[in-house]
Amino acid sequence: MTTIGDTAGNLSPASRAAALASMARDTLDVLIIGGGITGAGIALDATLRGYRVGLVERDDFASGTSSRSTKLVHGGIRYLPQLDIGLVAEGLHERGRLLANAPHLAHPLAFLLPLYEDSRHPVGIPFTTPGGVGLGPILDVGLLTYDMLAGGMSLGQHRRLGREGIAARMPGLTHDGLKDGFLYYDGQTDDSRLTVAVLRSAAERGALLASYAEVTRFEMSDAQVAGAWVRESLDGASGPERLILARHVVNATGVWAEEVDELSGGSKLSVVPSKGVHIVVSRETFAIGDEAVVLPETDDGRIIFVVPWLSRVIIGTTDDEVTSPDEPVASGDDIDYLLRHVNRHAVRTLTRSDIIATWAGNRPLLRLRKGKSTGKLSRAHEVVEQANGLITISGGKLTSYRAMAQDVVDHIDRHEDRKADCQTADFRLWGGVGWPEALGEVYARGQRAGLDVGILEHLGQAHGTDALRVLSLVEGDATLGRRLVPDLPYIAAEVIHAMRAEGALTLIDVLARRLHLALEDTAHGLDALATVSALVAGELGWSEGDRAAHEQRYAAWVIREQAALSRPTPDETHHATNGNPAP
After folding, report:
1. Average pLDDT over residues 288-316
2. Which residue(s) pair with 209 in the sheet?
3. Is 5 helix (H, G, I), strand (E, B) or coil?
């Protein structure tokens, strides 16, 4: 099979240093601020159109919203009742493109939509009927519209299952009061790995990428943004600034878009950060097969997804306006909200002790009209250019990142008085070229190396054709084929690969975003911390003091992220105060 060269597309410490030096040395055509999925998409699109592109990110790639989503690729069923037809149609078409362009990272997922006797506003329908009579046919029409909007990119037609059909597919949810149900299709992805795949695709074609490089101020020339001053931000460093000049500067920082705009003298956008919280439980705790479930409504008119994800189940999400976009975490109230609503329908009552992990992410919603709650603000995106020339993109959602990037680069093309065709609609992303044709080779080599089927299945889904590079490490050192924790398929070779090829520079980068031990492992990766830190230290040349400091930083991060789990739910407190120990 044809493979990309040994170093092409690698995001290594050496490539990062070289990229920063090159960006500071020669003027760029396009400088992108923000290394989430939107910035990554712009970098790929602009590079494919022939621009000299640089991208800087103040933290790890995908460390913000782009690693904290519900991991879905969807049109947004809940936006239909809001009549955001254009948004839904765009999402459905982009869903189809993503599943084709990243076949290892994105796949179709069936969703079950139950309808209960007490349902009055399922999936956000803004009206109801007496006693809920007739809501089933209304949902049927809505799902038919959803199918039709997908056009030729449909993943399958929805079906009305009826009470018995839906009950048979939902072992974890009560059948009491169940009166109808539907099945429809959307998709699922690994958001942080998708971001890295897009970035590596851009790097392989010449984009200059650097994480842990923070923009501190803009360089102005004749009242126009001419570049940005950037300083090292790894491990809290605050070294000398370096100037990166560019003919076009793009602010792709999502929920931080207004903050970055203000550095240049003002903002035309009004971005409202909306916190979405998820909890993770085991599949044994919440019985679920390979189909997701949509709990049709909450007290405040939202919906909750119960989604199979890797070895676990995701339950989420909340949707609450917050005052600051920085470092969101789940609160006790967030967890109570999710548990309260899921337990209305769960066969087995869930408590905090069942939760393996939580995560919270802030979504960049646009306030287009006054008086709307964050649950109803637009997920549409906007490309705005300030009078000083700074181009800002915000809003949108993970599924539509490619279309958002195309709009930005089209905007730059108009400035350049050129029309270069966008090439990303049918562009196979890193790891997807030659996949799944390479699957047989992955299994053959992996089995010869002594790896079990569970590990090989994981390597294929996470890395695509790059699984062969991970296997090469194992073939060179059999100890790298060992699982990092007994019940999850992550192996030591992936830590080495994350450092050499995927841009990871800290233990949090590795354990939270390249490998998902922080979210899937009951110990949040702490039991594997010594093993992982030894591998990372060997790659980065850490001293024993450096290694200890990074281990402490990771442990503190885990405590902060999962702090809300230490507080019992109201029900647990009630049982405990009545002489019964909390579960």
Report:
1. 92
2. 55
3. coil
Listed as own residue / partner, the contacts of 381-387 with beta carbons closer than 8 Å and 24 or more positions apart are 381/407, 382/269, 383/407, 383/408, 383/411, 384/268, 384/269, 385/411, 386/225, 386/261, 386/264, 386/265, 386/266, 386/267, 386/268, 387/223
> Using the 8-state DSSP alphabet, how is residue 420 labeled?
P
Stated pTM of the model: 0.94
Q: What are phi and psi of 96, to 5 degrees?
A: -65, -40
Distances 21 to 18, 209, 241, 248, 521 between C-alpha atoms, Å: 5, 11, 12, 19, 38
Task: Name the DSSP class of 153.
Answer: G
CA dist 514 and 79 (Å) reads 31
Residue 141 CA: distances (Å) to CA of 81, 134, 158, 459: 12, 11, 10, 40
Residues whose CB is less than 8 angstroms from the CB of residue 412 and which lie 6 or more positions away in sequence, other chains included: 30, 46, 51, 248, 250, 391
Q: Hey, what are 424's tokens?
A: 């990303």
CB atoms within 10 A of CB 118: 12
pLDDT greater than 50 at residue 169: yes
Cα-Cα-Cα-Cα torsion 402, 211, 391, 215, nearest 10 degrees, comes to 170
Which of 301, 303, 298, 267 shows the shortest CA–CA distance to 373? 301
